[in-house]
Amino acid sequence: MRIIEVLPDLSQGGAEQMVVSLSKQLMARGHEVEVVVLRDSANSSSHRRALSEANIPVSDIGKMRSRSPDTLFRLRRRIFELRPDVVHTHLYALHYSLLTMFSRTPRRQAPVFVHTVHNIANAEVRKRPVLGRIGYSIALRAGITPVCLSEPLAETFVERYGSLSSRMRVIPNGVDMPDLTPTTAAPAPPRNTRIAAVGRLTEQKNFDLLIRAAGHLAQQRAPHPTIDIYGDGPERDKLEASINEQGVRDVVTLRGHASGITDLLRSYDVLVLTSLYEGLPLVLLEAGAANVTPLVPDLPELMSLAAEGALPIFKAGSSPALARALRELCLDPEGRVAAADRWSARVRSAYSASQMAEKYEALFFSLVESRKSK
CA angle, corner 198, sides to 304 and 305, nearest 5? Predict the structure, then answer.
C-alpha cells in the first residue's frame, strides 16, 4: 500500500512521535510511506533525521498563517500527486484534508481516509470548538474512519458525535521496546530520588502543579528529590516565576527541549504526569520502555491504564496529594522498583510499536479492500 501520514508539523510531541514510529514500522513491512506536514517547526530535526534514516520522505506544504485557505489546495495537490491508497491524518490536519475528501483523484479511485484522535473529544477542538466540531462532523459524514487511542477516549468521541462515530476503532499507541533486564536492585537512597516530567509547557500539561508539590516537599525534613521538567512552550515564563515563588530553585529545573525520551528517562526513578486531560500519553509508554515508575493523576481517561499496570496515582489537580504520593515513592525504593517492573512488563506485552503497526496495517488493508469492492 501507499500510505500518507498527514500532520501539522514534526515538533516534539506525542502525536508526532507516534507518526514517526508508525511510519518506520509500516515502511519496514514493505509499504510506501510519506509524511506530509503542513508547516516546518522548531525542534523537528530529530524526527526528520529518524524518518530520513528510514528512507521515508517528508513533504512540507508551506503553511504560513494561522488561517491559510490555500493550504487546502496545496495539500490536495500533493495528495493527488502521490496517489495514495490511504491518507492518515492527525490533529488539526484533518480539517485541511476536507477538500481532498470531496474530490476524486485523477485516473484512480479515491483513497481511504483514517484519522487518529489523540485526545478527548472536546480537547481535540479546544482552540476553535465550533469550527472544529463542524469539521469533524463533515469528515465523519464523508466516510472517514476515526481511530481512538483507548476506550475512554472513544467514549468521549461517541458522546460528542453520536451515530456519526459508528465507524470508530480503538488502536493504542505503541513504543519501540529495547531489550531490558528487569531491575533487581533498589536505586539510590530516597534523598537522591530523581523525578522527571516531560511535555510541552502548556496549560494542559499543568506543570505548575508539580512545582507547587515540590514546595510542599521542601517544607519537610525528608525526602528532598530533584525534579527536572523537559519541554518548551508558552508557559515557560510562568513556570519560572512559580519556581521562584515556591522557593524551589535548587529542586526544580526547566531543562528545555529534549529528544530520545526513552534513553533520557533511564537515568530517573519516577516519571510524573500532571495533565488536566490526556489521551494515551506516549511518554507514559516510554516510561515503561525505560523501566521507570510512572505516577499519574486519577483522570478518567487514565484510570484503565492505571488499573492495567497497577500504577501509583494521586488526586488530579491537588498539589498536596501529589506531594504525598511523591514522598511515598521516594521513601519506598523497593516498592517503586516493583511498580516500574510491573508497568514495563505491561507495556512490553500490549503497547509495542510493532503491535500498533500491525493493527493499523490490518485496518488499512480492510478499508482499501472494502473500497475496491464497491
Answer: 5
Both 346 and 225 in a single domain?
A: yes
Q: What does the alpha-carbon distance between residue 27 and residue 21 come to, in Å, rounded to a whole number? A: 10
- What are the cell numbers at 271? 516519571
Nearest to 243 by CA among 212, 218, 204: 212
Is residue 36 domain-shared with residue 158, that is, in the same domain?
yes
Containing structural domain, residue 143: 2-174+352-373
Residue of 94, 86, 97 lying closest to 115 (CA atoms): 94
Q: What's this model's pTM, rounded to 2 decimal places?
A: 0.88
The answer on 356 and 322 residing in a single domain is no
User: Is 266 found in the same domain as 127?
Assistant: no
Edge-first strand order for the sheet with 112-117 is: 58-60, 32-37, 2-7, 86-90, 112-117, 145-148, 169-170
How many angstroms from the chain centroid is the CA of residue 316? 19
| Residue 179 located in a structural domain | no
- Distance between CA atoms of 248 and 327, rounded to whole angstroms? 16
Question: Any idea which of 33-37, 66-70, 272-276 has the lowest mean pLDDT?
Answer: 66-70
- Rounded CA gap, 254 and 355, in Å? 34
Burial of 318 (0-12, 13-18, 19+ CB in 10 A): middle
240 and 163 in a common domain = no
Q: From residue 24, give the alpha-carbon distance in Å to each of 38, 86, 205.
A: 20, 16, 28
Residue 141 placed within a domain: yes
Q: What is the CATH number of the domain that holds 82?
A: 3.40.50.2000
Over residues 123-133, the mean pLDDT reads 80
Residue found by looking up cell 528545555 in the block: 256
Whether 261 is covered by a domain: the verdict is yes
Write the pLDDT tens digit of every residue in 188-216: 444 479 999 999 999 999 999 999 999 99
**What is the enclosing helix (H) or strand (E) of 28?**
helix 14-28
How many domains does the chain contain in total?
Answer: 2
